[in-house]
């Protein structure tokens, strides 16, 4: 993932392409951007010198760096270290107004976006509303398990995991104690792999010191994957290295293990096997936010809005969709719901004349705890310590704000040298 630098020329081009530069100077056209995530924030910055008024809407007052959410969930980082208030990021942008509102619909004919606080008219609309967890209609999972998409999710997981250890200390029954200390992570993509690795390390390197009376043999971290592979987009050698590393870090990796139900006490697999576990973390799928179904625009796979090669909605050249919420294919495959897509897509928006978007895969990285990662960059695969260092550097560079970079770096250094996780607080009641 690379940052998108802005220039006056490219910003003006975005305005032109949206049909904005042709309007009379007296009434500056309004560009409404929905979503202050990876895509929306870049779009807003790109317009900072364009002759337009930008209104940025988001239901949260912060921009979140989702790739490090699992570290909040495993007590490694505080939420404020991976998020930053939108107003503080964009406070110097004179042509921008931020509004914290929930967007609920769209009146495309009248060119108004509908929010919980009333309609907002636009000349051009950029939808960058992102995605949400896909539970594939397994209703019991969000009811009893945990998704990982936003700050409250991560804090809920942290509170829950730590609380299981407190409960286990008080539990006399050995079977119930083992269920309290069994943590099931579902989904062998990057989020599942990183979550399982970090959880196992939190327990084995840190919590083991906090709870010396607990028998570590009672603790299980399982990573369940329905197919026969982890990190599907990586070459076989790296996939195997990832599985091996997880085993070495005491994560039980299970292939062909599809979850069909969970009641908060027992995980039921499709083959009929039951795993007693009080914790299930679902990292098995993503889809566009439910809002996309309420916009009156066509939707495609994963609820994403199909766009033309220039990212405009067919029949509505004044509406662009970017990032996770957009559906666009490259080489016959849908573009992944990954941050680089949200960022690179902006380059296509800026081009003049409009060009068909071409996704350039910057490579993939997944860390598996201390000193271990797998990396596949420009056809070269590597593992272990070098991949871990690349992962660290890439994530520090991409975090928004110097303060966040500094504090995350300090935190990681402290945890690395002292085998610590500072944020192991239980902040809510049971
Ligand atoms: C746990 C996790 C780990 C990830 N790890 C990686 C990784 O390692 N590498 C990688 O490349 N990608 C990763 N991703 C994916 C990456 O975060 C997304 O692809 C990226 O955020 C998409 O950018 P976006 O701008 O489309 O949406 P987002 O960044 O999700 O932003 C969408 C914004 O829209 C706002 N919004 C949504 N609905 C409404 C509404 N109704 N009203 C108002 N505002 C609304 C949201 O609050 C949010 O701020 C990860 C995602 C998750 C959840």
Tell me the span between the first and last alpha carbons. Answer: 39 Å
- Helical content class: 25-40%
Assembly classification: single chain
Proportion of β residues?
A: 15-25%
Unreliable runs, pLDDT <50, ≥5 residues?
A: 1-26
Largest sheet: 6 strands, mixed
Give the overall silhouette.
globular
What small molecules accompany the polymer chains? flavin-adenine dinucleotide
Number of DSSP-assigned strands: 28
Structural class, by secondary structure, is alpha/beta
Brief descriptors of the model:
single chain; 430 residues; alpha/beta; six-stranded mixed β-sheet; five-stranded parallel β-sheet; 32% helix; globular; disordered N terminus; binds flavin-adenine dinucleotide
Q: How is this structure best described in words?
A:
- With 430 residues, the protein is of the alpha/beta class.
- The protein has 12 helices and 28 strands.
- The strands form 9 sheets. A 6-stranded mixed beta sheet has the order 5-2-1-9-22-21, with helices on one face. It has a 5-stranded parallel beta sheet with strand order 11-18-12-13-14. Strands 6-7-8 form a 3-stranded antiparallel beta sheet, with no helix packed on it.
- Helix 2 packs parallel to helix 10 (339-350) and helix 6 (151-170) packs antiparallel against helix 7 (174-180).
- The longest helix is centred in the middle third of the chain and has 21 residues, at 190-210.
- The radius of gyration is 23 Å and the shape is globular.
- Flavin-adenine dinucleotide is lined by residues 1, 34-40, 57-60, 66-67, 69-70, 102-103, 128-131, 148-149, 190-191, 289, 291, 323-325, 337-340, 342.
């Amino acid at each position: 993932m690379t940052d998108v630098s802005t220039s006056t020329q490219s910003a003006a081009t975005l305005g032109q392409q949206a049909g904005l530069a042709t309007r009379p100077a007296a009434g500056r056209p309004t560009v409404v951007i929905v979503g202050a995530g990876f895509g929306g924030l870049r779009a807003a910055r790109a317009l900072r010198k364009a002759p337009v008024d930008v209104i940025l809407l988001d239901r949260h007052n912060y921009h979140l760096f989702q790739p490090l959410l699992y570290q909040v969930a495993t007590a490694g980082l505080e939420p404020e270290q991976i998020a930053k208030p939108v107003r503080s990021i964009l406070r110097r942008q004179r042509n921008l107004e931020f509004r914290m509102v929930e967007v609920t619909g769209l009146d495309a004919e009248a060119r108004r976006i509908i929010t919980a606080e009333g309609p907002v008219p636009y000349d051009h609309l950029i939808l960058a509303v992102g995605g949400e967890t896909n539970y594939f209609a397994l209703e019991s999972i969000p009811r009893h398990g945990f998704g990982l998409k936003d700050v409250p999710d991560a804090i809920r997981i942290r509170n829950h995991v730590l609380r299981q250890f407190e409960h286990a200390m008080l539990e006399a029954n050995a079977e119930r104690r083992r269920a309290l200390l069994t943590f099931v992570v579902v989904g062998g993509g990057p989020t599942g792999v990183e979550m399982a690795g970090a959880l196992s390390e939190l327990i084995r390197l840190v919590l083991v010191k906090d709870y010396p009376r607990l028998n570590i043999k009672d603790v299980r971290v399982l990573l369940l994957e329905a197919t026969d592979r982890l990190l599907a987009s990586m070459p076989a050698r790296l996939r195997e290295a990832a599985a091996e590393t997880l085993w070495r870090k005491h994560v039980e990796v299970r292939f062909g293990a599809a979850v069909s139900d969970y009641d908060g006490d027992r995980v039921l697999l499709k083959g009929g096997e039951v795993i007693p576990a009080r914790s299930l973390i679902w990292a098995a799928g993503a889809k566009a936010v439910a809002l996309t179904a309420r916009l009156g625009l066509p939707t495609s796979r994963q609820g994403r809005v199909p766009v033309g090669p220039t990212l405009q909605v067919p029949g509505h050249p004044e509406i662009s969709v970017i990032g996770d919420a957009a559906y666009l294919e490259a080489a016959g495959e849908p573009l992944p719901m990954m941050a680089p897509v949200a960022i690179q897509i902006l380059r296509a928006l800026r081009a003049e004349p409009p060009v068909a978007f071409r996704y350039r895969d910057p490579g993939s990285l997944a860390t598996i705890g201390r000193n271990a990662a797998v990396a596949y960059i420009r056809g070269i695969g590597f593992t272990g310590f070098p991949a871990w260092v690349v992962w660290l550097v890439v994530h520090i560079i991409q975090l928004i704000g110097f303060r966040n970079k500094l504090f995350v770096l300090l935190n990681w250094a402290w945890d690395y040298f002292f085998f610590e996780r500072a944020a192991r607080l239980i902040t809510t009641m049971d």
